TrEMBL record:
<comment type="function">
    <text>Catalyzes the NAD-dependent oxidation of 2-aminomuconic semialdehyde of the kynurenine metabolic pathway in L-tryptophan degradation.</text>
</comment>
<dbReference type="Pfam" id="PF00171">
    <property type="entry name" value="Aldedh"/>
</dbReference>
<comment type="pathway">
    <text>Amino-acid degradation; L-kynurenine degradation.</text>
</comment>
<dbReference type="InterPro" id="IPR016163">
    <property type="entry name" value="Ald_DH_C"/>
</dbReference>
<protein>
    <recommendedName>
        <fullName>2-aminomuconic semialdehyde dehydrogenase</fullName>
        <ecNumber>1.2.1.32</ecNumber>
    </recommendedName>
</protein>
<dbReference type="InterPro" id="IPR029510">
    <property type="entry name" value="Ald_DH_CS_GLU"/>
</dbReference>
<dbReference type="GO" id="GO:0001758">
    <property type="term" value="F:retinal dehydrogenase (NAD+) activity"/>
</dbReference>
<dbReference type="GO" id="GO:0005737">
    <property type="term" value="C:cytoplasm"/>
</dbReference>
<dbReference type="GO" id="GO:0047102">
    <property type="term" value="F:aminomuconate-semialdehyde dehydrogenase activity"/>
</dbReference>
<keyword id="KW-0560">Oxidoreductase</keyword>
<feature type="domain" description="Aldehyde dehydrogenase">
    <location>
        <begin position="24"/>
        <end position="483"/>
    </location>
</feature>
<feature type="active site">
    <location>
        <position position="253"/>
    </location>
</feature>
<dbReference type="InterPro" id="IPR016162">
    <property type="entry name" value="Ald_DH_N"/>
</dbReference>
<dbReference type="InterPro" id="IPR016160">
    <property type="entry name" value="Ald_DH_CS_CYS"/>
</dbReference>
<comment type="similarity">
    <text>Belongs to the aldehyde dehydrogenase family.</text>
</comment>
<dbReference type="GO" id="GO:0042904">
    <property type="term" value="P:9-cis-retinoic acid biosynthetic process"/>
</dbReference>
<dbReference type="InterPro" id="IPR016161">
    <property type="entry name" value="Ald_DH/histidinol_DH"/>
</dbReference>
């Protein structure tokens, strides 16, 4: 930290060293609305320096055995774990989420990401075939691609950054990562641990700043052959456009408009608390959050009453409040965007059953300028409404009735996104049938967000391109070569 004034000031991390920047961006504490940190406003120059560092580090790092790289990843995981409390406090302050969530989800999962890829990189096998009349044996080998460009969002900052850094460096690539300019602090804290973990200079470079300035410089750089991105669909379009002239490998993990389908035989005791969580966890700022709840008509009234009651118990509070389930949204602009959807729904004749504009939120004086809102439930809304079609990415969920299995599948599939769905029913045949017909990269039945890191993660349609996970990330971060030997 460079101490020019009382604000925390971050620096880029290039070639194993912290480097100051010529200009900075203000970063806000979402729970107070006050500036508390300055983030480098990097551009092309910093990307050039990072590319040079990553290029120089590549031959040495890629030549190490998977076992050696695995050891380094385990060491970094241990160091992150030792700093868990400090990182959780920092993530909460930077993002607005509760400390409880950062402590129980974000930082433990960042540690798990490193340990998972440290282990999985040791177990990949290649393909071989001898079924060839020409008397040949054919086999594949995989090699790291080179310099990986990693762009991550603000909702799960360290969790999603490590989900990209870990598989990239485990496979032998060097990386240039660009976290969101809104939430850069935990990435910068991780940089302080890299040397001790044994990560050689230039293997992990982190360059901070805005998307249009430094993000685009990274995406457009001819020596960065692959980009892994998590964020919004419009930004993904821009990345596709900028990387097209270089035919870059792209992994795009985008938004969702995720349905929950609740059949009349669902176990409501489990379904209601889980659906409250899937709608409002992390302030609804997870791409996997539920935002359209379809409930079979025979239980619609009962579900709605219980769901609204449970939503009202989902306490909004300052991030340090151990009883709070929800903290502040990421920014003033985002809060206004989320509120605008509720206003639109109201103008269309929808009913707001609880939350924004219906209930009152009480906050300490010092947090009055923070970006808080209550979890909000909307009903009597048409499938064509923008609230039922567009990603809101906030604590807002719509509940509507349905009659038949066939009808609900068609309605659930009627949006441009296809990321995640939940299905609630005790009928085994039905859950298999419905899961198979949903246009969704992930389907959780009678649960939500239980993750198996080894299996493919990602969406179809406008929710993305490619998958992440054990084998998928390894394939993305390596180039495959088929070798034929005539004998
Ligand atoms: N995983 C997800 O599904 C996420 C979805 N969103 C959605 O996106 C909306 C807007 O949020 P934003 O923060 O603006 O998302 P975004 O997609 O603009 O930001 C994600 C990352 O991309 C970078 N970025 C932005 N423009 C770029 C460009 N032209 N070239 C390269 N990198 C660029 C950002 O700096 C950040 O690191 C949210 O309201 C939400 O609906 C936002 C974050 C995560
Ligand atoms: N990509 C996102 C969440 C991923 C969760 C996971 O891997 O478990 C997101 O919210 O953007």
């Amino acid at each position: 930290m460079a101490g020019t004034n009382t604000l925390m000031t971050l620096e880029n991390f290039i070639n194993g060293k912290f480097v100051p920047c010529n200009s900075y961006i203000d970063s806000y504490d979402p729970s107070t609305g006050e500036v508390y940190c300055r983030v480098p406003n990097s551009g092309k120059e910093e990307i050039e320096a990072a590319v040079e560092a990553a290029r120089s580090a590549f031959p040495g790092w890629s030549a190490r055995s998977p076992q050696e790289r695995s050891k380094v990843l385990h060491q970094l995981a241990d160091l992150l774990e030792q700093s868990l409390e400090e990182l959780a406090q920092a993530e909460s302050r930077d993002q607005g989420k509760t400390v409880t969530l950062a402590r129980s989800l974000d930082i433990p999962r960042a540690v798990q990401n490193l340990r998972f890829f440290a282990s999985s990189v040791l177990h990949h096998t290649s393909e071989c075939t001898q079924a060839d009349p020409a008397g040949c044996v054919h086999y594949t080998v995989r090699a790291p691609v080179g310099i990986a460009g990693l762009i991550s969002p603000w909702n799960l900052p360290l969790y999603l950054l490590t989900w990209k850094v870990a598989p990239a460096i485990a496979a032998g690539n060097t990386v240039i990562a660009k976290p969101s300019e809104l939430t850069s602090v935990t990435a910068w804290m991780m940089c302080k641990l890299l040397e001790k973990a044994g990560v050689p200079p230039g293997v992990v470079n982190i360059v901070f700043g805005t998307g249009p300035r430094v993000g685009e410089a990274l995406v457009a750089h001819p020596e960065v052959p692959l980009i892994s991105f998590t964020g919004s669909q419009p930004t993904a379009e821009r990345i596709i456009h900028l990387s097209a002239p270089h035919c870059k490998k792209l992994s795009l993990e985008l938004g969702g408009k995720n349905p929950a389908i609740i059949f009349e035989d669902a176990n409501l005791e489990e379904c209601i608390p889980t659906t409250v969580k899937s709608s409002f966890a992390n302030q609804g700022e997870i791409c996997l959050c539920t935002s359209r709840i379809f409930v079979q008509r025979s239980i619609y009234k009962e579900f709605l009453e219980k769901f609204v009651e449970a939503t009202r118990r989902w306490k909004v509070g300052i991030p340090s409040d151990p009883l709070a389930s929800m903290g502040a949204l990421i920014s003033k602009a985002h809060l206004e965007k989320v509120r605008s959807y509720i206003k639109k729904a109201r103008s269309e004749g929808a009913r707001i059953l609880c939350g924004e504009g219906v209930d009152t939120l009480s906050l300490p004086a010092k947090n009055q300028g923070g970006y808080f809102m209550l979890p909000t439930v909307i009903t009597h809304i048409k499938d064509e409404s923008c609230c039922m079609k567009e990603e809101i990415f906030g604590p807002v969920t719509c509940v509507v009735p349905f009659d038949s299995e066939e009808e609900v599948i068609q309605r659930a599939n009627s949006v441009k996104y296809g990321l995640a769905a939940t299905v609630w029913s005790c009928n085994v045949g039905r859950v298999h049938r419905v899961a198979k017909k949903l246009q969704s990269g992930l389907v959780w039945t009678n649960c939500w967000l239980i993750r198996e890191l080894n299996l493919p993660f990602g969406g179809m349609k406008s929710s993305g391109v490619g998958r992440e996970g054990g084998k998928d990330s390894y394939e993305f971060f390596t180039e495959v070569k088929t070798i034929t030997i005539k004998h």
